[in-house]
Amino acid sequence: MNKKRLTKLREELKIQDLNAMLVRFGSNVRYLSGYTGSNGMCYVTREDAWFFTDFRYKTQSAQEVKNMHIVVPQKGDLLSAIQNSGCVQSGAKVGFEGNHLSYEEYTKITTLFPDTVFKDMSMLLERLASVKEQPELDALGEAARITDAAFSELLNEIKPGVSERQLDAKLSFIMKSLGSEKDSFDSIVASGVNSSRPHHQPTDKLLQTGELITIDFGAMSKGYHADITRTVCLGKATKKQHEIYHIVLQSQMAAIKGIRAGLTGKAVDAMSRDHIISKGYGKYFGHGLGHGLGLEVHAEPRLSPKYEKKLKVNQVVTIEPGIYIPEWGGVRIEDDVIITKTGCINLTTATKKLLEL
Known about the structure:
With 357 residues, this protein is of the alpha+beta class. It has ten helices and 18 strands.
């Protein structure tokens, strides 16, 4: 699989008039090499490729890394190992991940390679990785399947007197029991007024009858992340809770119905946002509509008022509108979808009916 990805990168090197690309960020290294450990680095030229790691991952890299020379130095850091390997030719023009490389590392590479011209190629790998291959789509589908199943089981645990933190722990256990490699991210369990905070962290607050409870969570399969949100009501919902919930649901369905390749992320965001604005709650929807999914939980592309790039077939994104009213609470509903030429395929099957538990 990584041979095709190396070919895509080399095509970009030619377009950008670069001789090579230095890749340090974990998920980008995994995307190119197949390596799942930490402390790995790739150096890819138009004709060849090298993978660098340390002694701890010698056996693992031999098993996972394909189509690259594997270098495991006896001592020293990986940048020094790249210098010692001689793979960087004098006068080469080399791209680097400016959005991931620290100032300290940048200073070091310019010192180690004084005759090399370095060019910031931020987001190049992320852009290439945003269009998914079938095995990636399968892994994302499996992650979503586990996440949906976990939500169904979690419903039995949502009761008055259970704390947000306890529910979070039970959710993590359920997802792992169902086959998740690990939690896709730190889950959000937000009850009552806490649900007005989009990124609330679970606390010891106890769930109470009459509250909305927003749960944002995801499983992981083969390194690929799911990310869904469901909001439920503990007990019978009030008229206002019903109103807010169904405004969010209708806005989400508008975007799911309208999204397709060729539209900008800005245009899709507007499909959902305009509905919320028309109902008078626009000021309570303060984040973008969605983001890409892959080896990172927040990836390319974006669905937001500022994203004017066009969406592509087989990109996978979340669609997650929300309304958050301070001192009252909030509602968010989120699905994961594959973008197609004419619409999308929704990977998320968990019910979106307002559940009154």
